[in-house]
Protein 1
Amino acid sequence: TEPLLAVDNLHVEFTTRQGLVRAVNGVSYTVNAGESLAVLGESGSGKSVTAQAIMGILDMPPARIPKGEVRFRGTDLLKLSDQARSQIRGQRIAMIFQDALSALNPVFTVGWQISEMFRVHRGMGKRDAMKKAVELMDRVRIPAAKQRVNDYPHQFSGGMRQRIMIAMSIALDPEVLIADEPTTALDVTVQAQIMELLAELQRESNMGLILITHDLGVVADVADKIAVMYAGRIVENAPVHDLYKNPGHPYSKGLLDSIPRVDQKGQDLYAIKGLPPNLLDMPPGCAFHPRCPYRRDNCVTDVPPLYEISGTRGSACHYYREVLDGTVE
Ligand code: SF4
Ligand code: MG
């Protein structure tokens, strides 16, 4: 059976003045209805570019997709006409962006902006569309929605503005919702509330949810499964609890060890040494080798494939068994 959304061996490259950047290098993942996938990675790992390819919002050129498919209910979106694509974008597959303040128009009320979704896409009249806007503001738990529907974006806090963005993104009942770093600009408590809201909405409407983040700490309670990206590839995929219990790639292990934990108060936090690689000058072999405490000789020459650990787990590390068993130090 075909998943709701399947990214299959996706490659995205950019032509730059300095040379060719392979931003996404053979990425595959799937999301089903009612399932939530966290895509984790540092900036430049290719996680946002993959999402932009799904949405069809990459600038081409300079971007190019030399290989791969993005199948939505079995149809490869990359082969659709622009017009067919725009019927899906924002309606059946919607996206929430990081920066709610710049995404909202400062000169229109939030009610007007939310209700625009219904006026433009559902042909509703102003009054009905405005009523729907209030309903949606309730649904994303904006207090006193009826009173606040005619307020302007700047009259809301950052967290409330993000809720307004979420309201707009779910207005047309999308089947897939992609949230790209939806909480990065917010403080920790508000981050948790927004994540909780996304999880609730996802359960209520049985959407497929893709949560893109650089912060492993915020997705633990929300995601079912996780794909860890590094330098344009997936280095580990796993059910979220399996990865938390026992990561199967040194990079995931490093990320996990750098999350503050209540049970380890006072201990020094581990941080992964070094920087992500320059995509114009990728290290040979395993791209993580310059930073890897587990590195051996062949890591510098042999690119690790995504080894299958089980039916639901994979790791792109030659020594994943030792990493899982904790036998390599
Ligand atoms: Fe580290 Fe080698 Fe595994 Fe890469 S393949 S993550 S360098 S041990
Ligand atoms: Mg990004």
Protein 2
Amino acid sequence: MMTRRQALTVAAGAAAAILVPAASRAADEAVAGFTLGKLPYAPDALEPHIDAETMTIHHTKHHQAYVTNLNDLLKKNAPEMLSKSIEEVLANLKALPEAARQGVRNNGGGHWNHTFFWNVMAKDGGAPKGDLLKKIDESFGTLDGFKKAFTEACTKRFGSGWAWLVPGKDKPLMIVSTPNQDNPQMEGGAAPILGCDVWEHAYYLKYRNLRAKYVEAWFNVVNWDVVAANLDKAK
Ligand code: MN3
């Protein structure tokens, strides 16, 4: 479904732009800002592991709210940032007015994290193989050893946050966890190659308080080809 913002952007590029009152266009569309991307699959594609209702609310309400709030904060506090990439915004939080910094961190982080999250999931995500599997084995013993350690990072995260798989220092890969909508690269760390959203909004409708059950099911929809591609990019 096209949002009003997208509709106006399309209209602005066509002759139909003249039908949009100039005043509202100037106020709303001076800079388009960030937009909610489409899911790379249908909302019910990850059933039964991730139910369609959770997916729809998570994408169209939660993720959309991060995008809307991010745009509002930047419009008020740093409009020049609206034309940057989300990576550039998150790498330059210190350049923002202090009053907006935490909000941009939360909502900009939310936008980056969720865009990443949708793309590391798929209906038939397969299994890790090749160099990725080798690095998982070297780092965690076995794939099951990795799943156990990753699940522990998910369940031990107190409150809301994320668990991530990132390139390591002593070993090829390591697991880290971040609170809220932070991610490992915000503090100058490595870009993650896999991440799991452990906010209650990601699982509560289907799994209630059972976060470990959600993570167990989530492993069935990890898109291992994308994780392998992320690892290649990190090299
Ligand atoms: Mn979420």
